[in-house]
Design a protein that fits this description.
The strands form 2 sheets. A 5-stranded mixed β-sheet has the order 3-4-5-7-6, sandwiched between helices. Strands 1-2 form a two-stranded antiparallel ribbon. With about 700 residues, it is an alpha+beta fold. It comes from Mesoterricola sediminis.
Length: about 700
Amino acid sequence: MSSLRTRLVLGLAPLVVLAAPLRAEQPVKPSPTLEALIAPWTGPYGGVPPWDKVKPADFVAAFDLAMADARKHIQAIATDPAAPTFQNTIEALERATRMFDRVNVLTGVHFSTLKTGEVPAIEAAMAPKLSAYFDEITQNGPLFKRIEAVYESRDKAGLTPVQKRLAWDYYTNFVRAGARLDPAQKTRIKALNQELASLFTRFAQNVVLEESEVFAVFDKESDLAGLSPDFKASLARAAEAKGLKGKWLVANTRSAMEPFLAYCDNRAAREKVWRNYIKRGDNDDARDTKALIPRILKLRFERAQLLGYKTHAHWSLEKSMAGTPEKAVALMEAVWKPAAAQVRKDVAEMQAIIAKEGGSFKLAAWDYRYYAEKLRKAKYDLDLKEVTPYMQLDKLREGMFWAANRAYGVTFHPVEGLPVQHPDVKVWEVKDARGAHLALWYFDPFARAGKSSGAWMNEYRTQRHFDGDVTPIVSNNSNFTKAGPGEPVLLSFDDAQTMFHEFGHALHGMLSNVVYPSMAGTNVARDFVEFPSQINEHFFLTPEVLNRFALHYKTGKPIPQTLVDRIKKAETFNQGFITMEFLASAMIDMKFHLAGGAPIDPARFEREELARLGMPEEIVMRHRPTQFNHIFSSDGYSAAYYSYLWADALTADAWEAFLENRGPWDDAVSERLKATVLSVGNTWDPADSFRAFRGRDVNTDALMRKRGFLK
């Protein structure tokens, strides 16, 4: 659950705002279901989300009541006759939007995972209204003057270091939102934000439709040669669920696409699935997103100019660890050359395999994963299909719990009887090393209609010690394919690693131990937030986790050590592809937002810029512009997709701290990571946080070693 400050920083709502009068909404008499949306949560564990009482028909009225409640509290702060203090201004703002935060969580989960029926229309209608609400708050001149007064008197007021940082954060965020602009500029910013909010919503909804309404259907099982029996069975179940019994259906999601491309022998079938996936949002139909992209970029550029920044990228990175687009680009360019060289080498070897098999075609993008697996087998005697039978969802989830216990002392206990938003969702209570309640963890693992693709962590309630001790409630969300009745869900190697990654975000939220909610958990700089999640990926491949939890779904035997050894030996294999696929997206994101206000044709821009960069033609962007939710469904990762690479530089260096000592389960290193990173949220500058853990600034040589680019 995010505070006002957090939402303004991270782009979970429109980011730039200012100066209209606060107004009251017409009173609404709450019905029982509406009351459930706005009321403090009740029940065990300090209260839980009342999913069983949530009705989408109440969302608009709930937001109206929640915004009215926030307005009342904020107006009281702005008009307080007492001199501004940290307590009557900053701390008061920390508690001013609690009703709104509850409503936002309950509706937001529907907007991301239950986007069916009336929900998309409600989301679209609310987007500009919520934008206006945020504009209204930060346009409050008297409120900003009080924040400014607290910030400017922070030293003589005797504030703690944490309080000084929070005062700085509020002040900086309001200034970055435009608190010093003149009335005409503020009015224009407000209009820009409202239009952007609507465009973001349309973009995200179109992508969801592309992923739920478009799929590849095959009539003949012979078209699926090379796929495992379990995977083929899942495709048959998917077809039957769509009323296509006797056929096979490949969903338009990464979890379905990647294993199909890696193992299907039928080249035409691979191309069909690949084109569906990479053409999301780019089919010149009602779901097309191409027209939205140039408008979003134009509005962002105008907003940045009004705020005094050269481009949106300069605005976006100002508070990041990188600080400037130039520093982010420098890291990407340093990695680009060795990654491209590795791709060229791998492509030549894959082309040789094609020739050896009697093929005369040139390796294409839909062939890359397939021949990469053949090359992996040839070089390392490793076929990742051998690994899948050991990747049981339930067992690996227990492995995540075991690793978290071993590293941080926490334990996980299934909870029955709590309300959930969908029957697929399960809940666990998390306890600390002393056995005391620490958090609740909700897990929503499966793909379904109306659910955004990919994997992510949500925070339903943010940890705080302010106004009493409040424990966090977090969730992880994935899009795995369900198994048949009584059968285990088997994951690909990549999906298993992603599950550990997202659980790292959850741990970041659950292990938070700060006073103020807007500084808790994952509320950190965008290019730092991926650091804890990437660290958690490393625990997946430790012998202790694999030997206990990578168990064959039929025999129950652990994954053979010889197979683990081959996985380890091939650890840097295909890093050229993995790196280039990501870097292309990150570079195009940055170039989009450094391009200024000139009109942009997304398809032409993508094609020409990738050519200038020297993008290998056998690879496409991990996220092509027309489906790039990270940067076009909110401001969140806009001009900041590079963050995953920046964080991986931190991660690679940090993991070497474990290896330099007693290995992955070094208690002293784990405790230091918890004390300096996982528990402190945004109470420290992230550079200081990393420095406190590592004892120095990051050394990017570790990143090059991890990816096999530096021997």
